[in-house]
From TrEMBL:
Protein name per Swiss-Prot or TrEMBL: DUF742 domain-containing protein
Domain of life, per lineage: Bacteria
Pfam families for the chain: DUF1484
């Protein structure tokens, strides 16, 4: 590195759309940060430790991504179950006030669940 002063120029990776979460972008950004913070003449020990940390952070990022994706799958199953219950309530031709009340309670909860899961999936 000939210049001792680092110059930061943002690229397209540093400005994601507002609706995206950085889980999938975390590892490359951390690697870029490590590259900027370690001078070219860093010791082999420091460079190795930086690589180990980057690997650990990447593994952690993958774990977070996997757990989040699995959570979304499970929540979509809950949503499908709620949809089935709502269809059964709607199919009841002799619906009494209790049935209507249960439907009125579950329908907004299902809609809220679906919206939240959609937002989480959009982040990953």
């Amino acid at each position: 590195m000939t210049n001792s002063t680092a110059h930061f120029e943002p690229d397209s990776r540093s400005t994601p759309p507002a609706h995206q979460f950085a889980i999938t972008r975390q590892s490359p950004l951390i690697a870029d940060l490590i590259a900027l913070t370690y001078p070219a003449n860093a010791s082999a020990k420091d460079s190795l430790r930086a690589q180990e940390l980057a690997y650990e952070l990447g593994a952690l990022s993958n774990t977070i991504l996997d757990v989040t994706q699995q959570g979304c799958v499970e929540l979509w199953r809950v949503s499908a179950g709620l949809a089935a219950v709502l269809r059964l309530l709607e199919a009841d031709e002799e619906a009494d006030m209790d049935t209507v009340g249960i439907h009125c309670l579950l329908a907004p909860l299902k809609a809220q669940l679906d919206e939240v899961v959609s937002r989480v999936q959009a982040m990953i």
